Amino acid sequence: METKSLWKAHGGMQGVYTHASAACACAMTFAVYVPPHAEGQKLPVLWYLSGLTCTHANVMEKGEYRKAAAEHGVIIVCPDTSPRGEGVADVPGDWKLGLGAGFYVDATQEPWSAHYRMYSYVTAELPAVIAASFPMADMGRQGVFGHSMGGHGALIAALKNPGRYLSCSAFAPIVHPMTADWSRPALAAYLGSDETIWRKWDAVALIEDGARFPELLVDQGTADSFLADGLRPWLLEEACRAVSLPLSLRMQAGYDHSYYFVSSFVADHIVWHAKRFAA
Question: Can you give the pTM of this predicted structure?
Fold first, then answer.
C-alpha cells in the first residue's frame, strides 16, 4: 500500500492510498479517514460506496462526513467505484457502463471479467488491506452505506453477508437494478443474459429469495430526477414489508440526487451506525 496524501481534519487524518489489487487486476485508489483516538483504541469501520461516475474523491471532498466521524469515533473507508488504468475495458461516452460504473458485482462476461470484480474487492480484498494496514480498525464492528449505485452496493453487501456488517444504510439507492432502465444494460454486460443470475446482485430480489438483515435505513429525495425510473424505493419498501424486515424509508422533501442531499444527512447516518456499533 502506498500513501498518496494525508491531511489533518477534525483532529483525525484523511488519507488517500493506492495498492495493487488482485481482484481487479490493476492499481486501485481508496480513501480512509481515521478519527482522533487514544493509543491502542479500536475503532469501528464504516464503508462508503459511491455512485455512478464517482471515484473515492467525490464523497471525500463533498460528503462532509469527517466532523461526525470524529465525534463518534468511526473510521470511514471510501473505495473507488471501478477498476481503472491501461487495458481496463470501457465504453467511452457511456457513464452507466465501464469506468466509474462497476455496480459492485463480479463480472463473468468478457471483456469485463478480467477486471470488474468490485464485489470481491470491497467485501474481501480491501477489508483485508484495511485490517493489515490500520491496526486501530476493529473489523468485528463494520457497517456499510452508500449513494445511488453505491447504495445498491451497500444493500447487496449486507444482504449477501449475514453477520459481516452490524449496520447498513443508503442514500437514494438503486433498489431493484435488474428492472431499472439505467442499470439493466450494465447487468447484462457484466453478468450475461440469464436474469436468474442477476437476482444474486439485486436487493429486492435477494430479499424475495430469502436474504435478511436486521434493519435498514434509506434516505431519498423527493425532487430526485432519477426517482421514478432508476431508484423506486417503494419497491424495497414492499419487499421488506412482505417479510417483516425493518426498513426506515425517509422521503426528504425537495432534495435531489446530488451531494447537497448526501451531505445534508450523512451525519445522521453516521450517528445511526455508531449507535449500532455500540450496542
Answer: 0.97
